[in-house]
Amino acid sequence: MNLQYSPVFECPPEISSHCQWIYYFTHFELLAMVFEVPSFLLVIYATIKSPFHYNLTFIGLFMLLGYYVFLVGRFITCLYEIGALRISDENEANEIYPISLVISSLLQFFYMGCACGISLAVAFERFFATYFVDTYETRKRKWISLLVCSEFTVACGLSAIIMLFDFLPISAMAFLGVFISCASFFFYLVLFIMNKRRLQTIQQERVDDMYTLSVRFQLSENLRVMTLLRNVVIFSGVNNLVMAIMLSLYMSKSFKESYPVTCLYLHFAFNFCVILYSFIMLIIMVFSVKQYRVYFFSLRFVRVVLYPLVGRCFQNEFMTPPVQQLTIRDETDCYFSSLSLQWDEKFDKFNRS
Predict the structure, then answer these.
(1) Domain locations in the chain as residue ranges
(2) Is 243 a residue whose pLDDT tops 70?
(3) Predicted TM-score of the model (pTM)
């Protein structure tokens, strides 16, 4: 059984000094988790307030909430690692582990599947946004988000069971996740190019379509959203590659026997990288597109949290008065209604002439 568990309260004498350092680091990790809960809530808040389609918002929230699954599992595991909760020597020798430790490891493996699949999930959603571009913004089509989330829940659950009970090598599963991230990036790139080319074709008036204005608006929104998601997908892929290497090394029994000290530090580095994930994801989400950045900085809650950190770098954005009446979705609807009205006026003038 592969457990995400590396005890540091009792170590062989030859590596006791290193275990002491990891022991302190683990306490720091526990403290970081306490601050991580409200920090990641800011990411969720930014996602809810974002001008994304219902399906993209739902999928994003579903994947982001999976991070709290990891925090619960990792918090319990840390208590075992520092000795706050203990396994009897007899049970550990017979590989009989508490159900709480087994479940916590399962939760962590489940989140690893979510981290690898989030880029593919948003790529699938953008595929449907491209396919139904004419009416995607006007219809929720909730079945898309339900389909994607249910399939990924089953896939992440199966991958967690496979990794926990060692049905397949950890290294094979880790690099399968990297392959999925890379494949989703190229799939996403193809969708981006398709949307961009179609928008250029419409702008050059090569298509005689009375709904050209509507399609142009939807394609522009697609490209703006995909600019943000492109950065998320790239970061997710690079992050998954680095963490797959670390996971494969410290979970390898032969490597652990040959380099026990290195495995201790790799184990801590892996989990700490997951902790940093939310902070970096927040930066990517807010700073990728200027329109979204201006809007997020106009929200009072975000201004209070981020101004002490990045206020000097983005003074122009922070000078924007707080939004009090319309959400960005309402502003988008108003803008689209204005464009539609202009189109109707031009169409009427054309008929009269």
Answers:
(1) 13-288
(2) yes
(3) 0.77
